[in-house]
Design a protein that fits this description.
The protein is α/β, with parallel strands linked by helices. It folds into two domains: 6-128 and 284-302, Rossmann fold, CATH 3.40.50.720; 131-278 and 310-328, Dihydrodipicolinate Reductase, domain 2. The chain is 34% helix and 29% strand. The protein contains nine helices and 15 strands. It has helices at 15-27, 41-51, 60-64, 81-90, 105-118, 133-142, 177-193, 282-294, 304-323, and strands at 6-11, 31-37, 55-57, 71-74, 94-98, 122-125, 149-159, 199-207, 213-222, 228-234, 236-247, 250-254, 264-268, 271-275, 327-328. A nine-stranded mixed sheet has the order 14-13-12-11-7-10-9-8-15. A six-stranded parallel sheet has the order 3-2-1-4-5-6, with helices on both faces. A hairpin with a 5-residue loop joins strand 8 (199-207) and strand 9 (213-222). Helix 4 (81-90) packs parallel to helix 5 and helix 7 crosses helix 9. The termini are far apart. This is Oxidoreductase.
Length: 329
């Protein structure tokens, strides 16, 4: 276990930061949360007291000016990712930015370029893919145990529609289910298949009472060799986060594909086998990979170019949903 610690600052007091990412960094082998900032000093002081964070700031600028902070986590609303990633890069901070990285691929590329020019590491916060079970799943597929891949189906839904003031329902702030949860099965499909889709077709429920964001979306991503990935995402439906990988002679079922218990099932002619990966904190794993990448101990498992490519798929999905057309990538 390393005794070296990466000193983190947190730009904002979003629920994902308070409830998941900060505790994950604190439980990691490599990180310590040294400061948190909010535009409301009382809010950051309250969060600091609750989580044992030494320093609270009343502005993001103050935190970025703190020379003792080496890396920042950005859980701000989606439309602020571009601005504060670039400002953090200019301040010499390494950056873990919440998903989706940006509002579109062009913004994501601007962020990548700014971080490259500043010589800092930028990563998108898809914590689920740092759990070793996804490498285990890929190895099972590569072994041929479930035969040739034929289809993949992912679902990530929850119901928060009654909270009309939520930023998820502000279209100009990057609201909508594709941005919020659809990005998960899309990224998982790209990870598992190891390639990019060639086209996207998405149907969405656009809600006037929620600023016309996509409250639900179902889509088809076309891959090579006739492979199709289907997905459903939503913020106005019962909670699910599942993944099914279908082969010619078996399938893999992941009941909690992105959050929750890591167990999954491999179903073949020999029966239904439960795999029980170690229960690990995905947010702590994410922090450790980030720090070791910053320290050049490991190569980046998911370079920022991957985030740009994921945004290209999201761009196509959003265009398809709003214009009701098939979009080629």
């Amino acid at each position: 276990m390393t005794t070296r610690k990466l000193r983190w600052g947190i730009l904002g007091c979003a629920g994902i930061a308070i409830n998941s990412v900060i505790p994950g960094i604190q439980q990691s082998q490599t990180g310590e949360v040294a400061a948190i900032a909010s535009r409301n000093l009382e809010k950051s002081q309250e969060a600091a007291a609750k989580l044992g964070i030494p320093q609270a700031y009343g502005s993001y600028e103050e935190l970025l000016a703190d020379d003792t902070i080496e890396a920042v986590y950005i859980p701000l609303p989606n439309h602020l990712h571009l601005e504060w990633t670039i400002r953090a890069a200019e301040a010499g901070k390494h950056i873990l930015c919440e998903k989706p990285l940006a509002l579109n691929a062009a913004e994501a590329q601007r962020m990548a370029d700014a971080c490259g020019q500043a010589g800092v590491h930028l990563a998108e916060a898809f914590m689920y893919r740092h759990h070793p079970r996804y490498e285990q799943i890929r190895q099972i597929i590569q072994s041929g145990k479930i035969g040739e891949l034929r289809a993949l189906h992912g679902v990530f839904t929850f119901n928060n529609a009654a909270d009309h003031a939520n930023i998820r329902y502000k279209r100009d702030m990057g609201g909508g289910s594709l941005y919020d949860v659809g990005c998960y099965p899309i990224s998982a499909a790209r990870l598992i298949l190891g390639e990019e889709p060639v086209a996207a077709t998405v149907h969405a429920l656009l809600s006037p009472e929620h600023d016309n964001v996509d409250m639900m979306a179902s889509g088809v991503l076309e891959f090579s060799k006739g492979m199709a990935v289907t997905f459903t995402c939503g913020m106005w439906a019962d909670f699910r986060n599942t993944l099914e990988i279908l082969g010619t002679s078996g399938r893999i079922e992941v009941p909690n594909a992105f959050v929750g218990d890591p167990n999954f099932y491999v179903i073949t002619a020999d029966g239904r086998q439960e795999e029980q990966p170690e229960k690990l904190n995905q947010y702590a794993l994410q922090a450790d990979v980030f720090a070791r990448t910053v320290w050049n101990e490991v190569d980046s498992a998911f370079p920022v170019s991957d985030a740009v490519l994921n945004m290209k798929v999201l761009d196509a999905c959003l265009k398809s949903a709003y214009e009701k057309v098939r979009v080629e990538l």
